[in-house]
Amino acid sequence: MNHFPVIAIDGPSASGKGTVAQLVASKLGFNYLDSGALYRIVAFAAQQDNIPWSDALAVTACTKTLKIEFINEQVLLNNQDVSNEIRTEEIGKGASQVAVHAPLRAALVDMQHSFCKAPGLIADGRDMGTVIFPEAELKVFLTASTETRALRRYKQLQGKNQPANYEHILQDLTERDARDKGRASAPLLMADDAILLETDNVGISDAVDYILQKYQILQNT
Ligand code: CDP
Ligand code: CDP
Q: Residue limits of the Cytidylate kinase domain (predicted)?
């Protein structure tokens, strides 16, 4: 794997990882890895092929045949733009179900490492600091209470004119957190050397500034 600076941003669903990570990447001019999108693509592709999300071997075999590309803001699967299709709550749930399979996780490691290019990488996910980039220069664990995160997701869906029910979102997030934390392979876990950033009362730009400051301090030491 290439050695360029990596900032790993991990945390549970709707903690703000994607939004914060993309802003940090754009401020630093770094590459950006949305690792959750990979698990979402796999869940989507499996569904298209009528492969049950619980079938580890079939899901992994199917993944190995996929052509996955990130071009600008678009996510391409076998040359088709699936950016919107993979962002539904159903596919999010499917992503967390396929993500429990160790062989699938192993099949996605090289692709994630390939994002580490000059001048550096902001990697967002669940296991960026613990498994994929354990040597990352800076590791941040973003979190917020389940209620705060459910409300954020609710407002986000409303903003996109998509159906949103707060109680359902809260229940789905609780289930997804439990599955992500409880799985044997690369569970959602704060790395020992990560900085915890609780964002219940921290806005997006303050979170971005905080991470940039921490990175600046590291560079000056
Ligand atoms: O990537 P992840 O699922 O962790 O979260 P996200 O999609 O970046 O953020 C979920 C929603 O929360 C977005 O609409 C963000 O704008 C919002 N958000 C917020 O209101 N305050 C924060 N500190 C972080 C995110
Ligand atoms: O946007 P949100 O935080 O809801 O989800 P995501 O980051 O798109 O990830 C979808 C699912 O993929 C998560 O619930 C995890 O189960 C899984 N995932 C993972 O296992 N490891 C990662 N590095 C990223 C996502």
A: 7-216
Q: Residue 121: phi, psi to the nearest 5?
A: -140, 140
Gap between the Cα atoms of 21 and 8, Å rounded: 9
CA 30 to ligand 1 center in whole angstroms: 20
Q: Domains in the chain, ordered, with CATH?
A: 6-220 (3.40.50.300)
Q: Which atom of ligand 1 is nearest to the CA of 20?
A: 8
Taking only the tens place, the pLDDT of each residue in 205-220 is 999 999 999 999 998 9
Please state, in angstroms and rounded to a whole number, the distance separating the CA atoms of residues 63 and 106.
11
**Which atom of ligand 1 approaches the CA of 19 most closely?**
8
User: How many Å lie between the centroid of ligand 2 and the Cα of residue 86?
Assistant: 12
Instruction: Please report the ipTM that was assigned to this predicted complex.
Output: 0.98
Q: What is the pLDDT of residue 56?
A: 98
Q: Give the tokens for residue 29.
A: 């001019």
Q: Could you tell me the distance, in angstroms and rounded to a whole number, from the CA of residue 106 to the centre of ligand 2?
A: 15
Distance separating alpha carbons of residues 160 and 181, to the nearest angstrom:
29
